[in-house]
Each structure stands twice: as C-alpha cells, then as structure tokens.
Amino acid sequence: MQNYKVTISYDGHAFEGFQSQNRPGSRTVQDELNKVVSKMAKRPMKVVGASRTDAGVHANGQVVNFVFPFNLSERAILMGMNSQLPLDILVRKVEYAPLTFNARRSSHEKRYLYRVSTSKFVDPFKRFYTGHYFWHLDLDRINQALPDLLGEHDFASFAASGNQTATTIRRITSARLQAIPDRDELLFIFQGNAFLYNQIRIMVGVLLEIGNKTRPVHDIRRLIEVKDRQQARFTAPASGLYLDEVYYEPMD
Q: What residue ranges are annotated as transmembrane (predicted)?
C-alpha cells in the first residue's frame, strides 16, 4: 500500500462543492476524483480532501490523499489522473506520504483568497470567478478593520447556519487586502488554522460594509463579542472564493 498526497486545482462553478452529496445527479469534485482513482486501483477508492469547499468555490491548491493498493511512481499517478479527469480539475503535484498522513487532519493552516470585482456592471467573463460589488468603498477603512480579525477569537457571528463544528473558536494569522486597479478588483487574503462554514464569505461581507460606511470601522470587535450571526447577515457570493494553499508539517 502507498499513501499519496495530491495537490489539485479546480474551477468550482460547475460543481456542487467538493464533498460527495450522496444525491443522484449531483456533481462534486470528490466524486470525480473517486471515479478516476478507483479505475486506476481496480477497486472502490475514496479520496480525503483537506477542505470541503462549497458549491461554486474554486481551488488553486486543494490537497487530497488516498491509500493506493500498490505502488506507482508519483509521475504515473499524476499522468494517470490528469489523463482521465474532466478538464475543470487538474492534478498539480503528487507526493509519497506516510500512511499516517491525512489531508484533512494533518493540515495546520489554510490560506484562502477572495476576489471582488468592483466594476460598475458585471463582467460576463468574471461572473463565475469573482464576487461583484459596485458600491463605493473606502479602502483605508477596510485596512483599519482587518487587524481586528487577527488572533484567536470566537467567530460565532461569522458562522452560517449549518455550521457543525464543536467550537466556533478559530485563529486567524493573516488578513490582508490588495487593490488591483487595472483589473477593477480587490483581493482579500486570509490565513488561519481553520475556518467555519461560510466564515470567509461573511467576513468579506462585513468588510465591504465597513468600506461603504454602513458599519463602524471597528465593528468586527463588537461582532466577535456578541456572537450573533443575525448581526452579520451579508454573505459574499461563493464565486469569489478560492482555497489557495493548505499547510502541513514537513513529511519525513
């Protein structure tokens, strides 16, 4: 047996998320991967993903793993998967991993990006790949607010209904904003140990509301204290969200 760590990218707009839905007709990233790996292994296989991205969410660097019944080279796994996967999934890297490695449980930090298109009208070529927000934004206000997210906090106000985690305490280690004027875009970059269901999309919604002056600059501090999702109701669209990288300790 050989455990493989596989880094993949996918265009999420035609998927109902990463995780298998057990529902006829649903198309998920995990199902597509399971089909290909099972065919290569000549037996039913199930891949484990680092993050259960939602419908419409993209990935530059999702990580999966699977324990294969026999040993193939990393290149053989990469070539075999890419020759059979649909064109909206790409295997970028394959590595041997110890049998103890689990893509979800072994990760210690993740980085997500959120792209906001700020053009006046929706660009048809960006509609599946950005969130659109045309209201005037004061970027200085957003930059003042971002440090309020850093550190370990109870982010209950930023968790959508349906969140099933045992705790809503998470640690955010980096929260940045990059303006890209020539593309009429803003890029939010968040890194942390883990994120709650829809947490990043809700945080982006709050930051955009701070930027358009419908919230006080430091309203995030209050939202952390009140632990009430009803006071942070705007959720930015899934189309702008990207799982960018998953971090692990070095493998022996």
A: none
**CB proximity list for 240: less than 8 A, separation 6 or greater:** 114, 115, 116, 117, 129, 130, 131, 201, 204
The pLDDT tens digits for 173-231 are: 999 999 999 999 999 999 999 999 999 999 999 999 999 999 999 999 999 999 999 99
Please indicate if the annotation marks 4 as binding a ligand. no
Name the CATH code of domain 2-105 (choices 3.60.70.12, 3.30.70.580, 3.50.30.10, 3.40.50.300).
3.30.70.580
Q: Which among 31, 54, 219, 244 is annotated as catalytic?
A: 54
Active-site residue, 54 included: yes
Q: What is the DSSP string of 130-174?
A: SEE--S---HHHHHHHGGGG-EEEE-GGG--TT---S--EEEEEE
- The structure tokens listed for 237 are 């669209």
How do 241-247 and 58-68 pair as beta strands? parallel
Domain ranges of the chain: 2-105, 108-246
Whether 45 contacts 66, CB under 8 Å: yes
What are the tens digits of pLDDT across the range 19-28?
A: 998 888 899 9
CATH 3.30.70.20 for domain 108-246 = no
